[in-house]
Amino acid sequence: MMTASGWSANQFSALLDTYRSGLGLTESTVTGLVAVYVLGLVPGLLAGGPLADRVGRRPVALAALAINLASTAVLMLGSSAAWLLLPGRLLTGIGAGALLAAGSAWVKELSAPPFAEEARPGTAARRAGLFVSAGFASGGLVASLIAQWTPSPLVTGYLPHLLLAGAALVLARPAPETRSARPTGPARPAHVTDWRRFRRAVLPLAPWVFAAPSIGFVTLPGLVRGIGDLRTVYAGVATAVVPAAGLLIQPLARHLATRYRLTAAASGPAVVALGFLLAAPAAADGGPVLSLVAAAVFGAGYGLLLAFCLTEVAAVAPPHHLARVTSLFWTAAYLGMFAPYAVTLLSGAFAVSTLMIAGAALAVLTCVAVPALARSASR
Fold it and tell me: Which of the residues 58, 66, 237, 280 has the least number of beta carbons within 10 Å of its own beta carbon?
């Protein structure tokens, strides 16, 4: 279910060059369609979280998964009617947003007692993020490989997600509801969301969760030169490299998030800053190898940031507010996906390499500021 959500987000990103060449869409149009996903995702998150806390995780997650599946069918129709790409991407965002909010809470609770007695500490909080990352890594690569070597790529590239989402809908239906009864009477401290810690430790980092990766798999592949007719496959590889690096760094990310909280808060933006410094010469030279290296570093930063933020969310939110607080985190995180669109708009006035250096400077500032804010929030 969560893998299908991540898959639906990245399958479109891997097909951007095919949309440019096949449908004649401009760079600003395709990056704008990436941003439209966020415009649907935000209301999906903000509505899905409170609704899941009120009526249950299961019905909201299953309904969102059905919308997620339908959105892919609309995108397939967009190959012959380009105007459908806009509502298709909007629906993708709405479905993915509600699924992230309700599904993350559902998976977290299914991964902890009494549903999973043997779960290790911290596993439940991060499992949803791992499944989403697996979808990110698989969706773009599979879509690009299919699109590169099959007819009607803007239709066949979406078929795997239809199968995955359909199977997830069938397999998830028997899973039990996990939402417990809302506590009654005066609120006790254990049942109060620690909003101060959320604002200081999570919100400043959240936009970087997807800002850096989206530069790696949206902006940099479009600047690469010297790869001939393999641009679609290259884009798919880039969309796979970013989340794959995030998955590979999870053992370290888990260790830091659970034992060295302030180090974990600083490590994510520090690695993202390094990614931007590598992206600057990659953007200037159009080198395919350096661009992939930068994408991998961005992915490692994404993995560190995601593990820390999800661990913090689980720590600050009581069970009856978990989906709501989770939805707020994902909302702030996905705002970072406007980054490629911002780079496209600003590239008329500044070189992309200059914008990458500016991104590194902002990441360094975050690296310095957030540990101090997180430390003060714990007092």
Answer: 66
